[in-house]
Amino acid sequence: MTQIEQRFQPNFLLHGADYNYEQWLDYPDILEEDFRLMREANCNVMSVGIFSWAMLEPAEGQYDFEWLDQLMDTLHENGIQAILATPSGAKPAWMSHAYPEIRRVDAQGRREPHFQRHNHCPTSPVYRQKVRQINTHLAKRYRAHPAVLMWHVSNEYNGGGCHCDLCYAAFRAWLRNRYGTLDALNHAWWTTFWSHRYTDWSQIEPVDGSIQGLMLDWQRFTSDQMLDFFLAEIEPLRAHTPDVPLTTNFMRPDVGLDYWRFAQHIDVVSWDSYPRWHSQPEEWPVAVETAFYHDLHRSYKNQPFLLMESTPSHTNWQGISRPKKPGMHLLSSMQAVAHGADGVQYFQWRQSRGGTEKFHGAVIGHVASRNARVFQDVKSVGAHLAQLSPATSVSQAEVALLYDFQNEWALTLAQLPRNEEKQYQERCIAHYRPFWQMAVPIDLIACSTSNLMPYKLIIAPMLYLLRQDIAARLDTFVRRGGTVVLTYLSGLVDESDLCFIGASPLRPMLGLWVEQTDVLFDHNTQTLELEADNDLGMSGSYPITHFADIVHTDTAIPVARYGHDYYAGQAAVTINRYGAGQCFYVAGRADTRFLHDFYTALSNNLQLARAVSAPLPLGVTAQQRRHGDQTALYLMNFQPSSQTVELDGGIYEDALTGERLRHSVDLEPLGVRIVWQRLQ
User: What is the pLDDT of residues 553-570, one digit of tens each?
Assistant: First the structure.
């Protein structure tokens, strides 16, 4: 943790929202009411100025900060701090028309009009200069303002590539730096296929999906180029406000950016979470997915994060988004805190009157009323957060799941015998789910940079693209006593997306080699049959769908075998003793029942620590966090009926009511309880 990260240690949990004050300047009665309601809801922070460039600089070089001065002063007078945004996420219309080069060009070579947002060219020197100018003014003007808590840099960067000449020139320079020569590039991309060999750098255009190495490098470049833009954007902030931490709000990991790399350059991770509650017959599968993303964002820097955006009610861009049922807002907000959030914030404070998000949920709706359930739900969250001090950490996890952005990009591009439902994210969540159900803490890691030694178990689903450093680090981890689980579609290509010739680098650790992969139609089902007296003590039969590797064992021992078809009797799950550790291989796509039973048995064998020892009811989970010198146990029920959790030995105390608890805790439907774990 850097010095500036250490300095960002507020003595309260954050609670607030995006506040678009500038939209309501003509409504002073509304502005007055806003601050009264913020105090009532226990709000202590507001994100401001996010899309305000046209108000801050209505014409080129003409600035108007008076309204922002008033906002910052009023926030401070009301005991509310500001997460002050830079406005680069939405450029003003005058700028788009005066400087066409700042507008992105699509893959067909068409310059985009001024529309939407987040559509600037990240390479444009003009746009970078304009961003530097406005950010310098903001940093100089507010560097000593007592309301400033943190910088909110831009908003929801994305990896949508720009195909203008400036970006192509930058891409070719990036390629020269990566490969050095065209011969090396041609070999890495295997361009003799279909006579695609390049003889001049100027011939390279990232529009040909048949050259998957090209398109993978284009994705890497667009991520790197947006990171380079971000680093240029924060230069004046670092120069003029060196003591003010900064963040930029991440999203789910499917926007084309490698967040592991971004996280190295920010002080606090924040993200925007919008689960589709009430979209399935049961809530808990959505809860598992949401917990996965929370843990991913906590893991980027292995420290608490901020929930920068969530909705207190519904969205208006997800196709169908139901209002949250009673209890769900408090439960989902506390879920974020349980998994590492030191703040809960919303988009947005007050619903806009116009524009594409005018029907997006907000703390204050068009019919503003402090008696509305949404406001009372927000007020309840504020009351809970006010009684908790910031948490220093979650429990030290003994399990890690490798989440590799570049692997996901390469797997998405790959033309496999089965291209439907490759589902990298979904399968990572499927392997995460048993630990959520067992209340076993789990980290998400970037294997190339994370320290592996604290873990007992590392899981790497569908590790299709295998960089040499990752293979070596996993190998060392197992030889030193760790346990690794790998699956089908692993270790097929190198970092240039070239297939390995002969043995995969994983072969010694796996103790097997894959001859080919059977891909199953939706109406096909393979089975795996557990061996008698296997190492995990499992028994029975489980279905296999989608993919089934046909393997030959070297030193690996079958734990299960395929049940039928021409490869019946061949290994479907194996264990290989390797050095002081062991490596499991799950050769086919097994169902959730197998993954639950497999990881339950493995967790018992490895004696993994759990937040609660007794089995939890389906849809109920538990997380531990340290708040100062106290340990809190978060018990969360994502079922529509009441549930009971059996506690371990010791004395427990409800964090909000002070009620003493000894043997069990009753949870209301969609209920959450936070209890302190006291020593005897």
Answer: 999 999 999 999 999 999
